[in-house]
Amino acid sequence: MSVIKPSLAKGTRDFTPVEMVKRNFIYDTIKTVFKKYGYAEIQTPSMENLKTLTGKYGDEGDKLIFKILNSGPLKHQDTRRILQEDYNFRKIDNSEDYTISTDDKITEDEVFDILAKHVNESIKDSLTEKALRYDLTVPFARYVVMHQHEITLPFKRFQVQPVWRADRPQKGRYREFYQCDVDVVGSESLLNEAEFILIYNEALTKLGLKDFSIKINNRKILSGIAEIIGKPDLIIDMTVAIDKLDKIGLDGVSKELLERGFTEDDLEKLRPVILLEGTNEEKIASLKQVLANSETGLKGVAEIEQVFDYVESLISYSLPLTAKLELDITLARGLNYYTGCIFEVKTNEVAMGSIGGGGRYDDLTGMFGLKDLTGVGVSFGADRIYDVLEELNLFPASAEVGTKVLISNFDTEAEKYALPILQQFRSAGIAAELYPSSAKLKKQMAYADAKNIPYVVLIGGDEIASGELTLKDMKSGEQKKLAVLGIMDLLK
Amino acid sequence: MSVIKPSLAKGTRDFTPVEMVKRNFIYDTIKTVFKKYGYAEIQTPSMENLKTLTGKYGDEGDKLIFKILNSGPLKHQDTRRILQEDYNFRKIDNSEDYTISTDDKITEDEVFDILAKHVNESIKDSLTEKALRYDLTVPFARYVVMHQHEITLPFKRFQVQPVWRADRPQKGRYREFYQCDVDVVGSESLLNEAEFILIYNEALTKLGLKDFSIKINNRKILSGIAEIIGKPDLIIDMTVAIDKLDKIGLDGVSKELLERGFTEDDLEKLRPVILLEGTNEEKIASLKQVLANSETGLKGVAEIEQVFDYVESLISYSLPLTAKLELDITLARGLNYYTGCIFEVKTNEVAMGSIGGGGRYDDLTGMFGLKDLTGVGVSFGADRIYDVLEELNLFPASAEVGTKVLISNFDTEAEKYALPILQQFRSAGIAAELYPSSAKLKKQMAYADAKNIPYVVLIGGDEIASGELTLKDMKSGEQKKLAVLGIMDLLK
To answer: Looking at the partner chain, which of B98, B314, B368 has a beta carbon nearest the beta carbon of A419?
Structure first.
């Protein structure tokens, strides 16, 4: 076995003990809220059949799917087919040689290019039939269809698992990262939408965020606007342009709309909608006027109103709504996919993209042959939330402590004395360690420091004689003498 | 997007809500014990550079590594190299054709075989440089080496993550499964070995197992035995044969030993060791006599004695030792790897292979250039433990409940009345759902049944008028009228 210098695969990360405790704090907080709202956890395999995934994420997405090599050797007939069909491989008459020929007269470099393409497409395809999941949504759709006879609708599930994307790694973008998705399928009720707002509100508040916005829009409002302008076919172009208002301002949006097939007249009608301001109530009132002639548009507005009503009833007796809940008709995220309400969550305390989002989709499982199953769901961007909490210093101190107490180890006698005490601590549920060998005090203290262990129990001759042990508070440096039970009271 | 029939990749599984709750019960129980003993969680990426993994698991293991296709297109020069070097691809003089030639005169089928081999080895190799992790041990070794300057020794870590193996799937054997590993590196103390026995004992007891054995052996005892017989080089052959005592009996073992180079004289000396019986103390006494002339052998016995002493001191004040702790010199698991104590855990209540095992290794990180770092660790076979608990019906009823209470939904008025109550439940930490639309009672009850929800709150006109809600216990069928606070007291 030759020695190699160890390295991480590009775009992947190790998580240290301190990072894991913080990550678990995020996952646990979010999961606890999901469960309180009646959502149950499922998991799907990391690898899916390639045909389950391809064609679901657009051409760009498909390129980012990590494919897994078939494990067995290539089948003989596969090789033959590849060589014969793709390379035009054949024996040269009256010769011991074999030839690859191309139809047109081309340069040697062009031949290599063509062959490179063939190797890429034909050979690669025949070598792989499995891939790593790209998101949690498509596997969830597959799950629902495959388990449809054992599922009772509405089916409320959450899923917290890693996904993989062959993206170019950069700051904050990894090839392996966690998604936290929560969805319900089989219920049209807008109570679900309202509860997702409450879930965001409660989970992010529990994580310590104080100033964040939950933006809501509705695909039907966008359709209504395109309809009113008389350009229903340009809805995608319209929303792609409007979505950029924050970045390029009204002039930029107007320019882009003109480029995308809208007229100055259209812009005249669009402008008041794009610049819609005021409270949610004011926006709703304006939209009702603007969309008065669009049945679809009014339906969208009514859905938003109903969601706001539900939220109002739900918050009155419980957690206050810390989040700013904001109707934002420039919000267009994943429009091809969503059919009703659309959500996006942003923190206002740190410059960071969205930390969550989602919406309602009316045909999630159609791709697998199960029609007309409506669903709505949102997801939490755990990695971004991690960065936000880190930047705002919001991880609780308790999220950094593993072992609560270290018992020192000076010699065989003290070790022997310490063993039952060690187990007493553990029996009481206190995470405890005995330094595993007698070593210099300095070394043992450095160990406690490095592990962020808040207390050290020192056991020497005096302590054994008196039964009063020395408890050192590693933060304050303070030392006091206490019996074992006193120490346990203090640590619990 | 064409509709495809959804399927799972071979050898992989979905986990339903009920299965996830049970799996989490196992993971959480084990993790809680790990933490109490001072172990901290880390995670490593699912994908590692291929060169980190290959050569670590033997030829058979290497074949079972799932390789990931490089994501970018093949590089032009890679294709050129493959075609030129491996296929001897070249232009035919004075022709527009290109040729592949082989050195020897062989049949066309042989050419295809050779090319198939080339495609398998050369092309496949050039197409992949990443792979899915095969176990948690090699990634842990990589982690320790890469993080050596930030780690304080002894480093106590646990890791619960899936691994992937391209094995032929069969009952109980999957291509994706979880490993639960706990290891400490940088401490020679046998206290660590003793604590692993306590960890097994406590975790498996908490999981509900009542009759299980923790078997222990020591590589040095096996070396000592081989040394005494005068065949130190045959230690592997000896242990492979002895390891089969359970399956093939003494006659079978004797036959195999003769085949593997031992003489009748050797067998004479080996027999009393193989058939070693009695209590651990009696076995230790016999071994001390047998191994009197082997320094290594006596060292192994002394290590076992020290571990037993530690266990004795640790259990006296805490959890009793439920496990049968048994010195078993036929235990040889992973001998090439382990250098000191070796562990294996079996349940005696169900026929099932080992549900855990591990041992001490003196050179885990040598493969990555960090020498002389000793480590010891064990792992829990979570999938097998799941099957054992299922067969013995040991999953607690609480491990099946997600939502605690469902509020019925008969009409808009009742729904409106229910919303603040719903949030009161949740604020009190009670997982609660309101059926999201008004539907027939039967349908709502069927939903509660399917989700194993133990209580349903019925709200009709009478309930709204009186403020006393009807609480139905879904198991007993019993109904009673209670105010909201009364229901909350009962549910908490």
So the answer is: B314
Q: Show the domains of chain B with their CATH numbers.
A: 66-131 (no CATH), 401-491 (3.40.50.800)
Nearest-CA distance A349 → chain B (Å)? 26
A40 vs B402: CB contact, 8 Å cut-off? yes
Is A98 flagged in the annotation as binding? Answer: no
Q: Which residue of A has its CA nearest to B423?
A: A318
Of A37, A51, A96, the CB nearest to B4: A51
Question: Considering only alpha carbons, which residue of chain A is nearest residue B46?
Answer: A176
Q: Which residues of chain B have pLDDT under 50?
A: 76, 105-106
Mean pLDDT of chain A: 89
Top residue of A34, A84, A313 to mutate, by most chain B CBs within 10 Å, is A313
Give the bridge partners for B473, in sequence order.
B455
Closest of A380, A379, A373 to residue A185, by C-alpha: A373
Q: In what order do the strands lie in the sheet with B176-185?
A: B40-41, B155-164, B176-185, B375-380, B356-361, B341-347, B212-218, B324-327
Give the closest-approach CA distance of B60 to chain A in angstroms: 12
pLDDT confidence band for A108 (50 / 70 / 90): low
What pLDDT is recorded for position B440? 94
What share of chain A in percent tops pLDDT 90?
71
- pLDDT at residue A34 in the model: 97
Interface probe, candidates B50, B66, B158, chain A, greatest A C-beta count within 10 A = B66
Give Rg (Cα) of chain A.
Answer: 30
For strands B375-380 and A341-347, give the pairing. unpaired
pLDDT tens string B203-260: 999 999 999 999 999 999 999 999 999 999 999 889 888 888 888 999 999 999 999 9
Cα torsion at A206, A208, A213, A218 (round to 10°)? -30
With cut-offs at 50, 70 and 90, classify the pLDDT of residue A125. Answer: low
**Alpha helices by DSSP H, A412-456:** 412-427, 441-450
The answer to whether B146 contacts A6, with C-beta atoms less than 8 Å apart, is yes
Chain B nearest-CA residue for A450: B152
pLDDT for res B293:
94
Strands of the sheet containing A432-434, edge to edge, are A432-434, A405-407, A455-458, A469-473, A479-482
Give the amino acid at A460. Answer: G
Burial of residue B103 (number of CB atoms within 10 Å: 0-12, 13-18, 19+)? exposed
- Asked if A66 contacts A132 with a C-beta cutoff of 8 angstroms, the reply is yes
Residues A262-298: pLDDT tens digits?
999 999 988 888 888 999 999 999 999 999 999 999 9
Q: Using a CB cutoff of 8 Å and minimum separation of 24, what contacts does B302-309 make?
A: B303/B190, B303/B193, B303/B218, B303/B220, B303/B340, B303/B341, B304/B216, B304/B218, B304/B221, B304/B341, B306/B190, B307/B190, B307/B193, B307/B194, B307/B197, B307/B216, B307/B341, B308/B280
CA-closest candidate to residue B132, choices B46, B228, B241, B249? B46
Taking contacts as CB-CB distances below 8 angstroms, the residues of chain A near B80 are 112
A120 with B74: Cβ contact below 8 A: yes
Which chain A residue has the Cα nearest residue B202? Answer: A427
> Tens of pLDDT along A334-352?
667 799 999 999 999 998 8
A165 is in an annotated binding site: yes
